[in-house]
Write a structure and sequence with these properties.
This protein has 169 residues and is mainly α. Helix content is 76%, strand content 7%. A 3-stranded antiparallel sheet has the order 1-2-3, with no helix packed on it. 34% of the residues are buried.
């Protein structure tokens, strides 16, 4: 009769192993997205710029455009994977107050991942739009959208893994 508990332990070990691998994939996707966004910023800065007070004219950079698109896509995939892995958490305030500390931390991390996703995608989209135009564009100085978005991609990875780890614990 003791042989029946062994498959259960093996299944639990397998679930933990898959959870760890998925968390590593999430971190890897977010870090790669961050690096690509920062490289997109560097590629954008290689183009010609003309600055006059608070106005700037610059040429669009196709490489920067492509890198930023890939970064935004990887960020989205990492976020979807984290939400699928983390599962559903309680949404009412009453349920959260009664929940364990681990579930409360999980809910907080989930909220932070959504906020960071929104801000980083906005930053990446602003950087993408400045590079999609076929000709030079002029406007207010808007520096570092892509690099800020890239840094936030990495921060997203931290909170996404924290969410997954606390929801699976």
């Amino acid at each position: 009769m003791s042989w029946s508990s062994t498959p259960t332990l093996q299944l639990q070990d397998m679930v933990k192993f898959v959870g760890i691998i998925a968390c590593l994939v999430i971190v890897l996707l977010d870090v790669i997205a961050g690096i690509l966004a920062i490289r997109a910023e560097a590629a954008q800065n290689e183009e010609k710029h003309l600055t006059l007070w608070i106005f700037e004219c610059n040429e669009p950079n196709h490489d920067s455009f492509v890198l930023a698109i890939v970064a935004a896509t990887l960020l989205g995939v990492a976020h979807i994977l984290a939400n699928l892995l983390g599962g559903c958490c309680s949404c009412s305030q009453e349920d959260l107050q009664k929940a364990s500390t681990s579930n409360q931390i999980s809910a907080a991390c989930l909220i932070f991942t959504w906020i960071i996703l929104a801000i980083s995608l906005c930053m990446l989209v602003m950087g993408i739009t400045s590079n999609q135009k076929p000709t030079a564009s002029c406007g207010f100085i808007h520096h570092h959208y892509l690099s800020i978005g890239g840094i936030l991609c990495m921060v997203h990875g931290f909170f996404a893994v924290s969410y997954c780890a606390t929801s699976l614990a």
